[in-house]
Target: DUF2630 domain-containing protein
Amino acid sequence: MNDDNILDRITALVDREHKLRSHRADGSLDERTEHHELHAVEAELDQCWDLLRQRRAKRDFGGDPDEAVPRSASVVESYWQ
Model:
């Protein structure tokens, strides 16, 4: 997955997040479902941003960005903000 693919996925996930919040606001989605789906979207967003940062760091320091490896959601979500 290259940087453009990751950025496209981030854009799609942000769009999905906005739609979920909109559906919740208009009453077409219950709170429990929204919470569950938002958690999944946010976890994947965190993974995408982490992978993009890894790729950029490798490139900035002369490494191969294709050696960056996606980390699990549990690892990425445990990072300090």
